[in-house]
Design brief:
With about 750 residues, the protein is an alpha/beta fold. The chain folds into two domains: about 25-35 and about 65-335, Alpha-Beta Barrel (TIM Barrel), CATH 3.20.20.330; about 385-635 and about 665-735, TIM Barrel (Alpha-Beta Barrel), CATH 3.20.20.220. It contains 25 helices and 16 strands. Helix 15 (about 445-460) packs across helix 16. The chain is elongated. One of its GO terms (cellular component) is cytosol.
Length: about 750
Amino acid sequence: MPFAPDPAPRTLPAVSPGPALPALADGDPSWALAARPVRPSPAGDSPSGGGPAPSQPCPGAPGGPRGTAREEEEPALGTALLPLTEPAAVEGVHLAAIRAGARLVRTATRWASPWWLPSTSPERIEEINLWAAKLARSARELAGRPCLVAGLLGPLPATAAAGGSTEPEAVLEGYRRQVAGLLAGGVDLFWVEARHPLEAGLALKAVREAARLPVGVLLVGEGEPPDALPSPWLEAFHSAGWPDALGVATGGGPARAARWLAAVRRAGWSGPLWVTLGRLDDGPEPVARGLAGPKPATQDTGGWDAWDALRLLGPGWVGGTGPWQPADLEALAGRIQAVHPEPEGPAPALPVLGPLNRTGSGSGPAGPGAGHPDAGHPDAGKQAASLPAAAHWGRSRPAGAGSLPGATTSGAGGATGPGSPAPLREKLGRRFVISVELDPPRGPVATKFLADARTVAAAGADAVNVGDSPMARPRMAAWAGALLARSAGIDAIMHCTTRDRNLMALQADLLAAHALGVRNVLALTGDHPRLGSSGASPVYDVDSIGLLEVLAALRRGEDPRGNALGAPADFTVACALSPSADDLDQELDRFRRKLAVGVVDFVMTQPLYELEPLERVLDRLGGCPVPLVMGVMPLHSGRHAHYLHHQVPGISIPARIREALDRAGERGLEVGLQLAEEVVEAARPYIAGVYVVISYGKAEPVAEFVRRLRAWLDGPLPAAAARGPAARSPEEVRHHAG
C-alpha cells in the first residue's frame, strides 16, 4: 500500500513540518529529568542555567541498558508530575538543550498520559501537559534564541501499545486530554512517538481533531530495521490520515538510524524525515557514558560513512532518543552539520544617532508638507494639501519643543542615517499604521527578539511596541529592546511605566532613550509588582498622567522642576485607553486628563474584539482629537478566548466570538485571524492604525496577519477617521450602519 499525500493541507504558514537540511532537536527531556544525578532546587527557584545532565542512563532508557515495560514505570511515575512539582528542573533541562544548539525542544510529557498515570484525573493530566508546554516556552524566552516547542505524545506502555486490554476509544480520549493541554500551553507543533500502528493512528487523529499544526510521527525503532516499513503502519496512516513528517526513534547510532530511515523511504514516503538517536556511534556504549572515537569507515558502527548515509537520506530534525548531555548535543550538531548556527561576533550595528534638537533642517521653512516623503518634489505642497484630514491630526506643541508630527523630514521621530527605519511620526495620519507588540527578552540573549522584529518588519509592520516588564515580570529594559528593534530595521514604540522608577530615574531613562534615537514613548502606570514574582517594591512617584507631564517638560527643554536642559527632547508620545474598562467613567475621566496635558500625539487601546466599545467611548468623548491606534490580538482557540475574557483585566471578548472559536476546533487560529480582520475592517473609519499583540511567543501568525492587512488596507485613510462618531455626517453614519 503506497504512501499518498494528505488531501487536506493541515499546516498554516507559521511552522514548517521540518527544515530542508538537518537541524538539531533536543534529547528526550522526560528521560533527562528521570536520569538526574541530583535533585533540583525547590519548585519556583530559577534554574541555574546548566540544567541537569545525567552521567548514567536510566534502566529502560533508549541508549541505555535494555529495560522492560515495568522498568520504564519507575521513571515514569517519578517524572511525569515534575512540570507541576518542580518547574525549575523542567525549565532547566530545556534551557540547557537550547543553549547547546537545539532549535526544537520537546515538552516533558513522555509519560504525562492516563496510561502511565492511571490514578490521575483527566483534568490533572491536562494541567500537567499545559504547564509542560509553558515551561518549554519559558525556557525559550530565557534563552532568547529561535526555537520551536513540540508537544510530545509519548508511546504507550508496551502491553497497551500491542492492543492489550486498552480500548481504542479510551486511548483516543487520553490523547485528546494531552493535546488539549499542550495546545493551551502554546506548542508550535506535535511530536508523536509510537510503538504500534494503532497508537500512532489514534494520536494523529487526536491532534487533527483539535489543531492545524504540523505533526511528526516517529516509530519506536526496536530490533533490527526491516527492509521496508511494515504494511500495518501504512494501513494505519491510510485510515487516520498522513502525518506531516515521518521518522524513527532508535536507541542506536547513525548506522541503525540510516537503515530505519531507508526502510521508510523504500515504503514510498517522500516527505520530511525526523529521527532521534540513542548514541553518537553504534558501539555498545551509550552516549551518556561519553563520546567514542570514530570507527573505521569499513565498519557499520558509526564511522563517517554512516553519518554521510544518514545525511544523504535527508532528515530534517535530528535529536536524541534518551537523556543527552548538552556537550553531546553539540557534538551531534557537528556530526550532522546542523543548520541554524548561532550568530557569532558583536551585536548588530546600531543606528546612526541624530541631533537632539530637531526644530528644522536649515533647508527652508517647514510648511504643511515638509515632512512628507516627497517634500523635496516641486509638487510636494499639492500632495500635502490633498492628504486626508487624518494626516493633520495632532496637538500643538510649545514653541521650541521640536517639530510637529510630519513637520520636518530631518530625523523626525528618531535617529536618521543609512539603514535607519522610517520614523513612525511621518506615517501617522498618512498611511494605515501597523505596530506589533514584542516583549523584550527575559535574559541577555536577544537573538529571537531580533529575528521576530525582522519577521514583522518584512511582513509590512511600521513599528514594534516594546513592553516595559509587562505583567510585572522582569525583562530587558524597554529602551534597550527598542534600540535593538531599530537596529533590525523597524521603528519602535518604547513602553515606559512609573511602577519601578522614581522621578529622577524616569527622567534619566527618557533622556538616555532619546540620545540613542528612541523617540516614540507610550506612557503607562504599569502592572503592580504583586502581579509578578519578582519580589520588587512599587515606586509610583507619579502615575501615567504625571509621566505625561514629565514628557511635556522634556519637550519644552526643561526637567520637571523647570530647569533648562539645553535642548528639547523631541518625543512622539502615546497614551493608553481601555474602551472595555470595568469602570468606564473613571477611565474616560483619566483619559481626558491625559489629553489635557497637551503632549499626546496618538492613543493606543487595549485589544478589542468588537466595534461597540470603541463607538461607545468615542460617542461619550465627542470624537478623539488625535490619531487612535486600536489593539488587536488574534485568538488561537476557544480556550485562548475564554482565558483572556475571564482572566485578563481590560479585555472583554463577546460570547459570540468565544462560541465561534469553540466551534472552530482545529481551525481555531484561522478563524481567529478572520475575526481579527473583521474587527479591523469595521473600525477603519475611526482608527489610524492597529497594534497587534503576539500570543504564545509566535511571531509568524502575526506576520501573516500583517501581510493580509497590508494587502487591502494600504492607501489613504478615510477622512472620517479624524473624527469621532458624533462628528460624522448622517450619510457616513448610515453607510457604516449598513
